[in-house]
Amino acid sequence: MTTVTPPATDLRLVVGFDGSPPAIRALDAAVNLLQGRTGGIDVVYVAHLPSMAALSPGAVSELEIDFDDVEQELRTMVGERLSGREERWGFERRQGLIAEELLAAAKDTGTAHPDATVVVVVGSSSLVAHRVVGSVAVALARHSPVPLVVVP
User: Cα separation of 62 and 52, whole Å?
Assistant: First the structure.
């Protein structure tokens, strides 16, 4: 009988999370990947401003308030989902282009945990058009300097 020994390094999983079914599957997959290993899960919500050239200061303020509300809802959702299953997690909101911010989060995690293996975990897009013209997962696959897990 052989015994599988987990890797000696910590596993740090950066999970892109927006509350969608693919994101929930990615979070569940991260929990499974971390089982029996040291490390943790960094859940990242990226608030993405619409690409409108002229947003008034009032509109930007309203979007910020909306992002605050969404962040709180998502943080609560993650806490409820992970309660009793995995306690080694944190939640972070970033703002910008989603793929770029997830890669920046992975880089920051690698800097904070230099001896750890950092992996980005995302759900695949449920929209067929994204599989043809691109999605966050496709952009990450093209540019990620760290391992990437795309959960179907």
Answer: 15
- 11-151 fold: Rossmann fold (3.40.50)
Number of other CB atoms surrounding residue 16 within 10 Å: 25
Cα–Cα distances in angstroms (integers) from residue 9 to residues 20, 56, 76, in the given order: 31, 48, 30
Nearest to 119 by CA among 4, 6, 34: 34
Whole-prediction pTM = 0.83
CA–CA gap between residue 41 and residue 12 (Å, rounded)? 6
| Band (122; pLDDT cuts 50, 70, 90) | very high
How much of the chain exceeds pLDDT 70, in percent?
Answer: 78
Q: What HEC string does 61-114 produce?
A: HHHHHHHHHHHHHHHHHHHHHHCCCCCCEEEEEEECCHHHHHHHHHHHHHHHCC
Per-residue pLDDT of 19-71, as tens digits, reads 999 999 999 999 999 999 999 999 999 997 655 445 566 665 555 568 888 99
Show me where the domains of the chain are located.
11-151
123 neighbors 78 (Cβ within 8 angstroms): no
User: Locate tokens 């691109």: which residue?
Assistant: 134
